Amino acid sequence: MKLPHLLLGTAMALALAGPGLAQEEQLDPNAKPGGSIVITYKDDVATLDPAIGYDWQNWSMIKSVFDGLMDYAPGTTDLRPGLAESYEISDDLLTYTFKLRPGVKFHNGREMTAEDVKYSFDRVLLPATQSPGAGFFGSIKGADKMADGSATSLEGLTVVDPLTVRFELSRPDATFLHVLALNFASVVPKEAVEASGGDFGHQPVGTGAYKMGEWLPGQRVVFQKNPDYWRAGLPYLDQITFEIGQEPVVALLRLQNGEVDVPGDGIPPAKFQEVMADPEQAARVVEGGQLHTGYITMNVTQPPFDKVEVRHAINMAINKDRVVQMINNRAVPANQPLPPSMPGYSQDYAGYAYDVEGAKKLLTEAGYPDGFATELYAMNTDPNPRIAQAIQQDLKAIGINAEIRALAQANVIEAGGAGNAPMVWSGGMGWIADFPDPSNFYGPILGCDGAGEGGWNWSKYCNEELDAAAQAADAMAKPEEAEARLQAWSAVFEGVMKDAPWAPVFNEQRFTMKSPRMGGADALYTDPVSIPINYDYVYVTDVQ
Amino acid sequence: MWAYLLRRLIQAVLILLGVSFITFLLLYVLPADPVRQIAGRSATPQVVESIRRELGLDQPFLVQYWNYLTGLVQGDFGRSYLQKADVAGLIASRLPATLQLMALAILFELIIGLGMGVAAALWRGRAVDSVLMMTSFAAVSAPQFVVGLLLLYLFAVQFGWFPISGYGTFSHAVLPALTLAITGSGWYARMMRSSMIDVLDTDYLRTARAKGLSRGRIILRHAVPNAILPIIAMIGIDIGIFMGGAVVVESVFGWPGIGQLAWQAIQRVDIPIIMGVTIVSAVAIVLGNLLADMIAPFVDPRIKLR
Questions:
Q1: How far is residue A490 from each of residues A81, A292, A346, A487, B110, measured CA to CA in Å?
Q2: pTM of the full predicted structure?
């Protein structure tokens, strides 16, 4: 049996991520084409090479210059075909055949073909490219041989004809279509990569809605509308200027002065209350969920955190409401690793209630009636030291003396990875999903794979039973299994919480501020995939 | 003269060797792994190891340093880990902004600092002196971040005389240069004051006064030129400091200088950029000092370079 491809695509999107259409483009009837906007960022745009870029600011910029085979409907987590026109999945779930859209042109004018898809995947997987995304493609046959250097061409990716490619997987992988929607899976033209002399990141050429205009390092990056974009009628804007090196406080002043349309780093914490207290400004702030969780890790390999009672006690000792208040309610309290907007989130799970007396009792049972001394690592930028202090006070209330070690991000990551940190507050480095699927919240941060030296599983927690359950869940790639798969994932995360290697604290909300002239649905300003905004679909209301 | 230059050149090479070795060593022992920064959160251990191998970071320290050094003497500053571009080009693209800010900041520093220093010396021990020295002390102690935002809010947002931030025209440069000058001029004022006081007490000035020369002529023709020598040395040092980047001011005003590049590289452990900026800054300090020494004999003919 071969399932009709587009229907299957829609069915999967529906099942995985709630309602959504993966078919023809719905253009906003109010949108007028033209105009330009200014976005600010504090940090420089390091690179726009889709194989390399993995930053807050360049992730969504790359999405606007490049396309992959898969994509998400704007403002949602619903998968839809991108450069692929349609696809078929074999009965054994091991072969994916993609039909490419005909007539799609790169910014250099050449038509995109199946050879470009092949080249792009080979490039990402070659060790010489140093792509941080290479690990996402592990389920494609031959990915391991690319990684160890014994192959230079990906065995599991075949060019069938100029408009057809076939992927063969070594195991069923329910996340595969999400993985194909990652920036790392973008299609790039070989000749442009070679012509750039190793600096494709500053001279990007893709098939996306915008093409590269001007790039002045440390000052600005300018995107021009791609008039030949294959999604008819898009993008609306003629130009986007990204101004770099702008402190969030200064960006806000300039927004108030009418010089900036969206401050990419958001509203600075110190100004948040002031902005929200002014009805005129608050009306231009769009609030939305974010695939983010802030948590405290406890190193389960070291006493006293090797005792599950101690970890339960800490989960009960943290006054999450107070922490959320402290950051001006820019978050919601969390009781499990998954954020509420992630498929697989357990609505019915109660978590550990705030209970100081209960926590003390558990500590006594664990053999620490007088508490103990430990260290809490945290990143040294506001508001993280303040949050760490609130946690410190909560721990003090049950007799635990936690010394705060506030360090630069890279040093906290190192201490956590090396297993030297008894406790880490994840704020500022926390997990924001790469793609909207629960599996992305497990492997590297809670699974056995990430627990090794240097891994991001800072609790060094490894429960082989749960690992097996997680693998089984990801093998459930049949569309009719989608619901059961999410339930399996819920069970995995509830199992994690039973062992409690983390104390989840909150899920950050996003607050995007925009100028009065910005148009488009609110969902575009809290797009879960294109952060801060979906550049391809927003427009300005003051064009003639 | 030539022997002196040769000796200074050898000294400079030794200093640069030392600076590069110490910086490289500090970055090597730093408890932060550059490969982790490149690989990001989701990378598998296999990906991490392959990136480490590609960058040669699996080699022993001395091999890594030797590779860096042999590249450096051929003018190769290496490639940025995160930007995947040549460091020399990245630094060069920041030079115009850095040089422009440096020149204007030093000019403002001299105007403010020398003016204050001379005035304080002339009215030594009076109210003017104490007010000026208190002001210079406050200026030196004031955080650049506060001074910068204050100027920005006052002159750019409220009065609208200057652009709020950015780079391009002369008026973009005024507020950042002024911020640097205000916080830096205190040193010049104090140095100039004490140097002037020394000169004002000398016999030749007493002679000049006895000859009946006008007060203005005494100060401008005899006192200031003789008092300025230590200031020239200070400019030499200042050049080196500014070449390392004015991190705080650049960040407040969105100035695309070397400081911005360096600061972001430090946060992300982008070692080739950190090394490159350190070397450039060290070269500038050495050259700045050398330049100050070379100028000294022209200002004060008693000084001979040997």
A1: 27, 17, 6, 5, 67
A2: 0.88
Closest approach of chain A CAs to the CA of B85, in angstroms? 6
pLDDT, residue A465, reads: 96
Q: Which residue has the tokens 């023809």?
A: A24
For residue A457, give the chain B residue with the closest CA.
B41
- pLDDT above 80 (res A224): yes
User: Among A287, A270, A274, which residue's Cα sits nearest to residue A511?
Assistant: A287
The DSSP call for residue A105 is B
Pairing of strands A210-216, A220-225: antiparallel
User: Do A156 and A168 form a contact (C-beta atoms < 8 A)?
Assistant: yes
Q: State both tokens at A451.
A: 């627990």
Residue B14 near chain A (CB below 8 Å): no
Shortest Cα distance, chain B CAs vs residue A23, angstroms? 31
* 240-269 in chain B: CB under 8 A from chain A: 250-257, 260-261, 264, 267-269
Q: Which of A127, A408, A409 sits opposite B54 (nearest CB)?
A: A127
Whether the pLDDT of residue A6 is over 50: the answer is no
Average pLDDT over residues A203-220: 94
Give the tens place of pLDDT for each residue, A442-467.
988 999 988 888 888 999 999 999 99
Six-digit token string for A142: 């031959």
What are the CB-based long-range contacts (under 8 Å, 24+) for A200-205?
A: A200/A49, A201/A46, A201/A47, A201/A48, A201/A49, A201/A52, A201/A53, A201/B83, A201/B84, A201/B85, A202/A47, A202/A48, A202/B83, A202/B85, A204/A48, A204/A49, A204/A50, A204/A62, A204/A65, A204/A66, A205/A106, A205/A107, A205/A108
Give me the pLDDT at residue A25, please. 64
C-alpha R_g of chain B: 24
In angstroms, rounded to a whole number, what is the distance separating the alpha carbons of residues A171 and A174? 10
CA distance B39 to chain A (A): 4
For chain B positions 118-177, those within 8 Å of chain A (CB to CB) are 149, 152-153, 157, 164-167
The set of residues, in sequence order, having a beta carbon less than 8 Å from that of A389 and lying 6+ positions away, is A404
Residue B50 touches partner A, C-beta closer than 8 Å: yes
Residues of A in contact with B256 (CB under 8 A): 216-219, 244-245
Q: What is the mean pLDDT of residues B94-113?
A: 92
| A44 to B264: CB separation less than 8 angstroms, yes or no | yes
Are A503 and A39 in contact by the 8 Å Cβ rule? The answer is no
Q: Average pLDDT, whole number, for chain A?
A: 91
- Nearest residue in chain B measured CA to CA from A128: B54
